[in-house]
Amino acid sequence: MEVIQKPRAFTPKRLALVAGIVALLGSCAQAPSSQQPTQDNASATTVVKVDGSSTVFPITESVAGEFQKTRGDIKVELAVSGTGGGFRRFCAGETDISDASRPILTEEMEACRTAGVRYIELPIGFDALTVVVHPQNDWANDITLEELKKIWEPGAEGKITSWKQIRDSWPDRPLKLFGPGRDSGTFDYFTEAVVGQPKASRNDYTASEDDTVLVEGVSKDPNAMGYFGYAYYESSQNRLKKVGIDSGSGPVLPSRESVKNAEYHPLARPLFIYVNSQSLSSKPEVKAFVEYYLNNAERWVNDTGYVPLPDKGYELALTHLQQGKEGTVFEGQSQLNLKIEDLLQKEAKF
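-> C-alpha cells emitted (350 positions)
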C-alpha cells in the first residue's frame, strides 16, 4: 500500500521532486493502464486524484499527508499542472479535486458544462502574491503598480531591459525576470491586477509553473526580479528580499498581517479547491478527504505560509459541501481588491 508521507515543514525541494515525478508520469499518459491502480493495489486502496495550482499545492500536500496517516486505505495522488492545467484535467473528468489560485474562468466553466462536470467551489485561505528580488539588491525596496506595469506589459518585451529604465535613481544594470507560466493562476491574477488584462504579458522572461524554479532563479541572480505566492517567499526568505507594493497610498510589504488588515492590495487573493460533484457523491474517499481538508485547513494554511479564513469561512465551506452547492460566486472572473470579509459575504449569499 502506498502512502505519501508528509514532512513536518514544507520545502521547495519537496515540490520539485513531486513535480518531476508528475512530469515523468505525464510522459506515459497515453497508456491506459497508467491511469489505474494495479489489481493488487485496487483491492487494498482507493484513490483521490488532485491536480492544479503550485500555490495551493503545499496546503493540499500537508493535508493529504496527515489524512493518509489516519486513512491508510485511501491514497491521495497529487500533481502540479498550474491552475489552468489543473482545470483542463478537472473539466475533462480526469481528477476529483482541482487546486486553484484564482476562481474558475468563463471558458473553464464552459468546458466543464460541455463535459457534464459539475463542481463545488470551496475557498480555503488567502495569499499575498509577492514580488521579490535578490538580497544583494539594495535599491528596489518598493515599487509602484505603474512601474510594475512598465516592466511586465507586452510592449516592454525587448525594450525595458535595465533597472534604470524603471526608476531613474536605480542603477543601469540588466533586468532579469522570472515569473509563472501561462497555465498558472498566479500569472492570470498578476497580469490582470498589474497590466489590466489577464494573460497580457511580455514573453522574454524565465517562465515556469513550478515556483521552486522561480525561487532558485531569483536567489542566484543579483539583477533578478520575480513574483509568486507568499509561502514560497517565506520558505526561502534567507535567499530572497520582498518588495513593498505602492498602489497609491504608500508602499506596503506583503505579510499575513497586511492581508488580514486589508492593507495589501491589489495582490491579495483567495485560494480554492474545486470538487467534482459526481466524485463527491459516488466516491466516499473523496467526501472523507474533503471534509478532513476543511476541518483542518486553518492549521495547514497557516503553517504553510498563507492566511487562514476566519472560522466562519470554513463553516460556510462545510455547509456548502454538505448541501452540495454547485457553481461559483465569481461569474467566471477574478475580482481584484477582494477582502476576506467580502469573500465571506459572497459565500454567505451563495
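The chain has two domains: 12-127+270-348, 130-260.
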